[in-house]
Design goal:
Blueprint lengths: L5 H16 L5 H17 L4 H20 L3 H36 L14 H17 L8 H9 L1 H4 L7 H9 L6 H34 L6 H33 L16 H7 L2 H16 L2 H13 L2 H24 L3 H31 L7 H23 L3 H13 L18 H22 L4 H6 L3 H20 L15
Helix pairs in contact: 1-2, 2-6, 3-4, 3-5, 3-6, 4-5, 6-8, 9-10, 9-18, 9-20, 10-16, 10-17, 12-14, 13-14, 14-15, 15-16, 16-17
Length: 504
């Protein structure tokens, strides 16, 4: 059962009816039962034990942390909880990769294990780890009801691909009573429709083109490979943000505000800006629990002090932040998967972000003094977006490919055998999609662009739609529904697939 299946929406209808029909104080019980039923139907019963182990171990260790009298004992109990859960994640997701590489380096013959990866393990592990660390820091008291905490851990709209919610932002909403609200219900359905459009009409159609490119990269010209990578950028955004929109829409129907996870990332003016807009909750988690602890650690303090003394105050402040940024984004890369292509993806982002951390402030200060470039103009803003898109385009080859070697090979082809004529002579219609399906995809992407640009300019689309007369609104609703049904689920050459980030 996926977020785009008819089974899921039938499940939602039943759950929403029961949720608002029963006494308000028992609504959280409906969510808990529904979350576990969803997990069983979506992932089977084979891996739910890991979710239960995480729930129980983090619940108990958080209580244990709150009962300790000294900071050292609190840290020790917290470490046990983190070790258990990151240990489970490490063994299930990364042990095979580590053993294969150890065998290669040392010419050994250890058998690499193959585990069935639990649905959403990276997301619920990070979410519960953040909760445990916050309890250790004294940010809030731990939950004392294990069943309520189990709901926070397993909440079904977000468990597949996030967002990674903070306990103080989400938990109280899950446990609270909610009355039915028609406007909120309508906004939730509109957001779900928009998410389904991005996933089924755009992402799943683009996936056909992308898969053809990956499978035939050694036979394609650089321009065709470039088109495939651009299509992948469209696919992964439509897939991930579309899934989040569906999840946020479901939450709105239930009276729950889920954290925003995307803010039109392809309008970013730097890579730093991009990571503030893309997978926002992962970036926030990394900053809170990896970047800041590193920068504020005694070791990094010594690095800053030495650098300040021998090189200068600017680098004394900047060098620790650079190193912490590099480490953080290596972790981001590894979080995405157990493969060298993801290590390369993390390293690529790390190097560019370290450069931005070190030199962009200096360049900006210099430019303010000499007035060489007027950075307030549209032309500069537009150029910054184009440069950022190019940086993202190169980096995406690593997650786009089967492996790091293929990624490097495709990048070489783009620069060494780029034939622009192939973009206009109909060759793109031979890459998995028919001319009709390809052109339909381009129209859908234009719709996505226009809506995103309007939002970027400050237009609140749902509120704007609400101000229109009822006939116009229903025309929009019906067009959206039939577009999704005809050109999404039943469109030519389209097979609705699982979400990309479900694999991470």
């Amino acid at each position: 059962m996926t977020y785009t299946s008819f089974t899921y929406f039938a499940f939602l209808v039943v759950l929403v009816i029961v949720y608002f029909a029963i006494p308000r104080k028992a609504q959280w019980v409906v969510l808990l039962v529904g979350s576990y039923l969803f997990y069983i139907f979506a992932a089977g019963t084979g891996t739910i034990v890991y979710l239960i182990v995480t729930t129980i171990s983090v619940f108990l260790t958080a209580l244990g942390v709150s009962k300790q009298k000294t900071k050292a004992r609190k840290k020790g109990v917290m470490a046990i909880g983190l070790l258990i859960n990151f240990g489970i994640l490490g063994v299930l997701k990364y042990s095979g990769f580590v053993i294969i590489n150890v065998n290669t380096v040392f010419h050994l013959g250890f058998g690499a294990p193959s585990f069935l990866l639990p649905l959403g393990i990276s997301f619920y592990t990070f979410q519960t780890a953040g909760y445990l660390i916050d309890v250790y820091r004294g940010k809030y008291a731990p939950d004392t009801n294990i069943f309520k905490f189990a709901l926070f851990t397993s909440f079904f709209p977000q468990i597949v691909q996030g967002p990674i919610s903070r306990h103080d932002q989400l938990a109280h909403q899950l446990y609270a009573s909610h009355d039915f609200n028609w406007l909120r219900f309508k906004y939730g359905l509109e957001l779900m429709l928009w998410g389904l459009f991005k996933k089924l009409v755009i992402a799943d159609r683009a996936a056909v083109f992308v898969q053809y490119t990956i499978n035939n990269s050694d036979q394609l010209a650089g321009s065709q490979i470039a088109a495939g990578c651009l299509m992948y950028m469209i696919q992964i955004y439509g897939d991930f943000s579309g899934g989040i929109d569906i999840s946020r829409g479901v939450c709105l129907v239930l009276g729950i505000e889920m954290t925003e996870n995307f803010r039109r990332p392809y309008f970013s003016t730097s890579l730093t800006d991009f990571w503030r807009r893309w997978h926002i909750t992962l970036g926030a988690w990394m900053r809170e629990y990896i970047f800041y602890p590193l920068v504020l650690s005694p070791g990094f303090g010594k690095v800053g002090k030495w650098t300040r003394k021998h090189i200068g105050p600017y680098w004394g402040r900047t060098l620790p932040a650079m190193i912490a940024t590099g480490i953080t984004f290596l972790v981001v890369g590894i979080w995405h998967g157990a493969a060298w292509k993801f290590v390369c993806y993390g390293a690529y982002n790390a190097v560019i972000l370290m450069f931005e951390t070190a030199f962009v402030p200096k360049i900006s200060d210099w430019n303010k003094k000499v007035g060489f470039i007027n950075t307030k103009t549209f032309s500069w803003h537009f150029l910054s977006i184009l440069v950022t898109l190019f940086i993202l385009f190169i980096g995406r080859f690593f997650s786009f490919s089967y492996g790091a070697d293929q990624a490097v090979s495709m990048i070489k082809s783009v620069f060494l055998s780029f034939h622009p004529s192939l973009l206009f002579n109909g060759s793109l219609y031979q890459m998995g999609l028919s001319e009709y399906s390809f052109n339909l995809l381009m129209v859908a992407v234009i719709v996505l662009f226009v809506v995103s640009l309007s939002q970027e300019l400050g237009v609140k689309m749902r509120e704007a739609l609400e101000r229109q007369n009822i006939v116009f609104r229903w025309i929009i609703y019906l067009v959206a529904v039939f577009t999704i049904l005809i050109f999404g689920v039943y469109g030519p050459n389209v097979d609705p697939s699982m979400f990309i980030y479900q694999q991470f």
